[in-house]
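WARN retry 2 of 3 for item q-0093 after timeout on previous attempt; input resubmitted unchanged.
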Amino acid sequence: MKNDPKDSITFKCGKTQKNRFMLAPLTNRQSHEDGQLSEDEFGWLTMRAKGQFGLVMTCASHVQKIGKGFPGQLGIFSDNLIEGHTKLARAIKAEGSLAVIQLHHAGMRSPKEVIGEKAVCPSDSEKHNARALSLEEVKDLKNDFIAAAVRAKRCGYDGVEVHGAHGYILTQFLSSEINKRTDDYGGSLENRSRLLFEIVNGIRNQCGPEFLLGVRLSPERFGMKLSEIKLISQQLIDSNQIDFLDVSLWDCFKMPEEYPESELNILEHILLLDYKNVKLTVAGKIETAKQVQKVLDLGVDFVTIGRSAILHHDFPLKVMNHPNFTPIETPVTESYLKNEGLSDSFITYMRRWDGFVEESN
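OK item q-0093 returned
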């Protein structure tokens, strides 16, 4: 059955998303070094709410100081940060969008020059200059994820997404290549996924049944196997604790690395799961109106938009009004991006994306 991008979705927690568009949790390096929300980040996110993203998700927000992954990262690790988040959540919701914060810890991907000490990891990693967490520290990490969700609820957010993707700390626990622990948090897939399930269950218990709860996973890169991610995803669905699953596929239409002979692309593999009352969103090269519709027609509940959301703050409006809409071609000028709500620091960061920002003479 064809899903219309304009259609609303009601999650099992009772929250309703007014359309099928979610703003991806995009790294933008715009906030203050102590984790406080900046006016630049506030402007960038609220502009996307005004542009009619049904769900506006913050950038990855670290739950421990030592989990900071990049300069200018928005934090949620302390009550001192509540004021900025309260202002942000209120402004996003005022536009009729769901306000969701992504809970994050970079683990071994926390640069020493950013955190001022050795990064932490499930087990020692010489390559990343990271040390293993003690069992006590693993329990602290779990509690800090849960405490950050409770804090987010106090700030007025509709919900949280637990970041278990892209090689950050929960991926590091899930990965048999990275996680060499020999206690209850290492070894079998059950042990490697234990921390993720404990965090999810703890958030649901502490924040209640009406709080929107999602998990982001990525089935490839950083030692992740599609087969294991499918197993974990189904277990998350079956646990009846989450409202949505957010799968970052890098490219929705690529063939899976683990099954080179497969006739199914990576998205079709993810769609084989039995979703029951859990909603699915995916990210990965969904850039035009036709690609949005193609993904929705395959059975995905709502789309996660990154690149096109940077180029067009009102991408949802453009797609809903023009079924053949295609974003502006890149590279684009700095002044164009400033008009779309990007600060100088965000534009500098976007120069890492090959051919995105026009070279200035």
